[in-house]
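> call design_seq(struct)
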């Protein structure tokens, strides 16, 4: 493929952009790309055998999710993670997640179907039983996504999506941090939502978020992208 680009159709370019985005995202989350490492268009094009066109649309998406900082001269740099940024992330989660949980429970009380949320929790329970932490991490993300979907508020969906990227980036060091307790908290949250108890759902979501803050900050120095302030 011509690495200077220009040959793809619009659909092909979108598919390639998604491919590049997912591969770079996974590489950053796994630690394959180090914090501070430059991601140059020409190197990415060579690594993935793509033109530069999909790279130029993938990198800004990664910047929105906090994975990279885009620089001039067609280069991006993998960002560090700091305690301050994690604290700010959890400050936002402590506001948004109770609102999402309350709204989801209210919709259930008005007749909305909560089957997807319950299925997501059951799948996570199976992964926990197998001690498959990579799958558990993926399913926990799916569970939170199903709750956001149940809440069915478009603006909240758009607001929460970039926060989820930052949450996912921390998963490598947080997923094995007391997974049984985390699952119990998820089960309590789902129970409140599917029972239609809006205020209980909001309170449970807030407690879960604050406990998550404590767990994350305790293990954050183990993250390969951590930088002390």
């Amino acid at each position: 493929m011509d690495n200077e680009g220009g040959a793809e159709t619009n659909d092909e370019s979108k598919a390639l952009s998604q491919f590049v985005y997912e591969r770079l995202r996974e590489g950053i989350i796994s630690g394959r790309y180090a914090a501070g490492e430059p991601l140059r268009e020409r190197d990415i094009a060579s690594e993935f055998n793509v033109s530069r066109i999909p790279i130029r649309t993938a990198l800004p998406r990664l910047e929105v999710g906090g994975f990279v900082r885009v620089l001039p001269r067609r280069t991006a740099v993998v960002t560090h993670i700091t305690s301050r940024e994690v604290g700010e992330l959890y400050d936002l989660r402590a506001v948004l997640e109770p609102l999402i949980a309350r709204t989801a429970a209210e919709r259930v009380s008005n007749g909305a179907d909560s089957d997807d949320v319950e299925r997501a929790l059951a799948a996570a329970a199976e992964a926990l039983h197998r001690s498959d932490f990579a799958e558990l991490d993926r399913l926990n993300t799916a569970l939170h996504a199903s709750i956001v979907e149940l809440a069915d508020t478009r603006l909240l969906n758009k607001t929460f999506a970039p926060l989820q990227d930052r949450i996912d980036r921390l998963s490598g060091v947080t997923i094995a941090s007391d997974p049984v307790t985390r699952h119990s908290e998820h089960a309590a949250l789902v129970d409140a939502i599917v029972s239609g108890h809006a205020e209980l759902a909001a309170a449970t979501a807030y407690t879960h978020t604050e406990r998550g803050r404590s767990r994350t900050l305790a293990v954050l120095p183990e993250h390969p992208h951590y930088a002390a302030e």
